[in-house]
Each structure stands twice: as structure tokens, then as C-alpha cells.
Amino acid sequence: MNSSANSLNKQIADFNHSNKKRRIRDFFSAGSTYLFSSFSLIALIAIIVFIFSKGYSTLSWDFLTSDYRSEIVNVETNSEVTVATNTFEYTPGDNEYFASNWGISFVDSKNTEGNSIVLVKYVDSKANTDSWINSSSQDPFTLKEGDNITSAQLWTSNDPDTSRVIVVSSSSGAEKMCKGFAECSYLKTMTITSKGGGIRGSLISTLYLILITMSIALPLGIGGAVFLGVYADTLPTRFKKIANILRSLIDMISGIPSIIFGLVGGVVFLTLFGQKGNLITGGLTLACMILPIIIKSTEEAIRTIPKNMPLASLALGASQTQTTFKIIIPNALPGILTSALLGIGRVIGESAALIYTSGTAIQDYIIPTQGSASLAVHIWSLMSGDNQNIEASCAISIVILFVILFLSLLIKLLSMKINRYQKGK
Amino acid sequence: MELTNDVVKEEIIPPNEEKVFSVRNLNLFYGKKQALSDISLDIYKHQVTALIGPSGCGKSTFLRCLNRMNDLIDDCHVQGSISFLNEDIKNINTIFLRTKVGMVFQQPNPFPMSILDNVTYGPRCQGLKDKKSLKEIAIRSLKEASIYEEVKDRLKTNGLALSGGQQQRLCIARCLAMKPDVILMDEPTSALDPIATSRIEELINTLKKDYTIVIVTHNMQQAIRVSDYTAFFMLGKLVEFNTTEEFFSHPKEKQSNDYITGRFS
User: Fold this and answer.
1) In a shared domain, residues A329 and A248
2) Minimal Cα–Cα distance from A253 to chain B, Å?
3) Residues A137 and A273 placed together within one structural domain of the fold
4) What percent of chain A is helix, strand and coil (3-state, nearest 5)?
């Protein structure tokens, strides 16, 4: 009894001795995994923090909904001059300058591209005169809050011979512009610029690209996956080689850099559908690019369906095709949705494949048969010129991040619902 | 061996017994491996035939020959003849054959759809669209499978929400909706608890009035309880085929005797 207890004690002592080394080794091995994972996490967080800190100030509802190109309206008067005779009452806030004879207040601001501009902060309801007209359309012009007055030519008196001409412009700042307006009672011409720099056009063309790409890639991809996952198994053995070759080809294609897709798509689709790239050729190119992703993950989803589910269908006298469309595809739906999300993520983030195929011109009015930049290409355009606009690029990045976050949440929710329904809860 | 089988059959077949399946000299190969060798066996109308034997003896493979589910497996080729109601099954379209010869699997496998859709799946695949007659078929089949009372208030709920035993009876109902002549059951109770098992066994006893049933089972007690005929398979060969009573009380072959006593001693 005693001796066995002694021998156990000795064994424990031996174990503790040898275990010391192991604990040191374990500490370093486990420590390195913590270290490396925290590095990668820090890198990720740093990127997101950078994007948010740079882009947050630019991001606004206006940024999302306004045109990229600023619209310039020249305002003239249909009589000789517009006369300001009233005296308006208004209490301007901080850094706001009020020209009481016109009933207009001005503030300094910045446009979405970061240049200083002067905005109209307040217009008295009686301030507008019906003698202002839009010189290009000859329609009556109404000054609104938020308009950006680029320049104005004002006269101190009605008589052209004795009058001083004062020209104010947005580069001189709100205070000077207000002073100019306050001094003069006669307005000759005025140029109003809408804010511009918005991403509405790029946002819409991205949505168009997603729509075009998915409506081509999803049916083709699901078809290919059903062939590989269902029908290839029923082929005679010697034809199975074809399916295997197809599978390795798909693996290979998914590794091709996207610029090569852009190059080939640019050459092939542009010769097929005319000389200039447009959203349809861009969508076709992206569809080719994401086809492997959709085929692979859909085939995987098909292969994870319990084997006896399709067997039960066949044993009930359903044909293979009925089984495929009534049992296999509905059951693979969560997997198909996930693959669609992966595809949409690629479409939103893709720039290289689109530069040749749908153009880099940022447009405001989107027609699928015309080339226009997607959000990612918009970033590329903003950063590739001489005036790099990091703030706007980061703001677009935030938009892309949120779109992808929203999509992934939506698809998670959908596949959870489907899963739950299919499990009978 | 073949001789013995023939002799056995001559002894036990009452002349008025109608054959549904008649299997002659069936050989089945998976690639080069022979899984069934020289099986000759008859399945009688409105009788329960149990197929027993140790794992891997080929009884499930034999069962799947009867509705040509083995066609779905690569490298599987069959020699010999199986005739279903005096027609060689090679000449029958597989889809038609499977509507006449239903199958219930080991694992309950309802489709992830409502109970109603599960039961009407077969008729819908045959092109029946009329909702009223589909519902009538569903109710008839659910009643036949003695599950109607339990699910009549929730026909729209998902089939997978039922318990294991209910799911298996739902699968039987799904099979009955096709009005088959024969129901093949591949160890239908091995995934179920004893209470669910006894309900399925009761069900088999009521179903044999209208249907011919072939059941694969590991459980010899179950074979005794539910079957009229028993076929004992071993290593891909049919060792003995006899009425269940005769087989379990006076096994003619030594292998059968060893198998029975090995389990019961």
C-alpha cells in the first residue's frame, strides 16, 4: 500500500517536472496564435476606423441622393435690373450674414468635393421677385435655401453710366458676398450652382449591375450546379470524366484575376454589342466572373442534402427532373442565397473588370445601354486624377460597407427563415 | 441450394396463392463484386414477407431490386428475371413501376413541406392538380396509415415537425397515396422507439388486407409478429424461404437454425 503510494508520488513529481517544459512550449505556441489573430484584427479595425474617420463628415443624405455633376443656372432679369427696395427682418445665427434689403442670408460651406462655397441659408418668403428668369430655359427662377451662389453682378444704382458694378463670387466668402448684396439694390445677373459631387448615379448603376449580373449568373450558375451535382452522377462512368474536367476548370477560373475578365469581356462583348462599354457588357463580364462562385457553392449546397430525400421522391414515382425541381433545388435554397450574396459582394466591390467594359465616366442619369461608373469605379475615378478626394472615397467606402452589411444580414435572415421552415419549426 | 429452394416452394405454396413478384435466378453485381447470387423467390399477394439475415447479406439490395432503385447506383448490373404480375420489370417503365411498388425507408424522410403536400407529392408528380381530389387522397391515405386523427387539425404544418414515429407513418401515408400494389419497407422501425415500433407493426397488420408488403428487418421478433413468410439471406444467398411459423419452429437449414438460436439462446 505504502510503496504503491510512494511510486504514485514519484510519478506525479516526474510528471510535474516534465510538464514544466510543456507548459512553456504551450505558452509560446498558444501565445503566438493570440498575437497573430490580434494583429489581423487590429489591421481590420484600423482600416474601418480610417474609412469612417475620413469619410464620415462627407457622408450625408445629400451625398447619396444628389448628382455628381453640379448644375449651373444662370439667372438674369427680364427687365433691366431687379430692384431690392424692401427691408426684411431676420435674426441671423453664428457665421451667417443677412442682407436685409434682399432678405437673403449667406453662410460659408464646402461642396462634396471639398471646395469652399457660399450657400443661401435663408430666403424671406417675399424676397423672390418674379423678374428673375433662368437664362437657358427662360422659366421664372426662384431662389431657394441651400442654393449655392457662385457669382453675382450687382449695381449700386439704376443708371448704367454712374453706377458702380460690384461682382461677388463664392471664393470671396459669405461675409463679402453679403456686404456686396447689402450695398447694392440692383441685381444684373447671378450664377447658381447646385452642390454636385453626389453618388446617386453611381449607386443606381451599381444596382443595375447587380440586377443584370444576377439575372444572368444565377440561372446559369444554378443550371451548371444542378448538372454537376445531380445529373453528372447519373451519367455513365466514362462521361463522368467530363464533369470532373468541368469541375477543375471552374476551380481554375475562380482564381483568374478580375482584370483579365475585364480585358476579355472588353474585347469579346464590345465587339459583339458595339464599340462603347455599357452596363450590359459590364454585367455580362461580371456574370462570367462570378459564375464559378455560384456554381461551386450551389453544388456544395446540393451535395449536403440528405441522400434519402431525393431517393424518397424517386421511389414515389417522380422523375429525376421533378425530383430536381421540387426537392433538390428548394432544399438547396439557403446555399443558393449564400452564393448569390457572395456574387453580389464581388459585383459591388469590383472595379478592374469594369474599367474596360462599362466605362469610368461618372454619370447622373443612368441608362443600361450607356457606360457609367459603379461605386467602386467611382472611388477609382476620384483617386486616379490629380485631385485625389480621399474624403469622398472613404464616404463611398462606408456606403459600400453598409450595403454589403445590409445584404448579408438580409440573406442570413432569409436562409434562417427557410432553414427553420424546412426543419419544421 | 437452388434445388432445396424449389423443393421448399413446392411444399409450401398453396395452389390458390397469387404471386405478385416472381424472382428467378437473380444475380446482382456492384462492379465486379457479387452482392446477390442466384436468388429465386416468390412474393404472394396480400401477404407480409419478411427478409431477415445479418448485416450486409443483401436483403436490402434485394428489396431495392423490386422497384428498380438499384438502377440509380452506378456499376450495378442485374442478371436473371424479376416479374411483377407476370410482366418482366425490365419492360416496365421505372416511373410506372415505382407508382405500383412503393417504398418506405429506414430513416423517416418526409419532405420539408406541409403534411398535406407530403402526402399529395406522388399524385402531384403524376400530374393530378385538382385540389379537392388531392385533399381526398391525402385524407384517405392518412386514415389508412392511422395518423389522420393526430394531424387532422394541422395538415398545413411542416412534416418534419412531427415525432419520429409519426414521420414514419406519414411516409407510409405518402406511399399509400399512390395506391400501390406492393409496399417495400426497408427496416422501417429501426430508428424508432418501442411504442412507435408497435404502432407501425399494428399498421402493417391492418395494411396487409389491401396491400402486399415486403419488409426487411433485423429484429426476428418483429418478423415473427408481422410476417406470413420469411426469407433468410446470408452472404448474398437465399438460404431458406418458408412460412414464418414453419421457418422459426422447424428451420430446415443448419444456417437458419444457427441464426435463430444464436439470437434466442
Assistant:
1) yes
2) 30
3) no
4) 60, 10, 30
Residues A45 and A160 in one domain: no
Contact (CB<8Å) B72/A327:
no
**Structural domains in chain B plus CATH codes:** 2-109+181-264 (3.40.50.300)
ipTM above 0.90, yes or no: no
- Coil, strand or helix: which one is A151? strand
Q: Same domain, yes or no, for A231 and A356?
A: yes
**Phi and psi (nearest 5°) for A79?**
-95, -165
pTM of the model: 0.77
Interface of A with B (CB under 8 A): 233-234, 237, 306, 308-309, 311-319, 322, 326-327, 330-331, 421-425
Residue A336 lies in a domain: yes
What is each CA distance from A181 to A131, A165, A171, B56, in whole angstroms? 17, 11, 15, 100
> Do you know the residue count of chain A?
425
User: Is A112 within 8 Å of A392 (Cβ atoms)?
Assistant: yes
Domain that holds residue A82: 72-193
Q: What confidence tens digit (pLDDT) does each residue in A165-204 have?
A: 888 888 888 888 888 888 887 777 888 887 677 888 999 9
Same domain, A108 and A160: yes
Query: What does the pLDDT look like over B114-123, one tens digit per residue?
Result: 999 999 999 9
Residue B50 forms beta bridges with which residues?
B215, B230
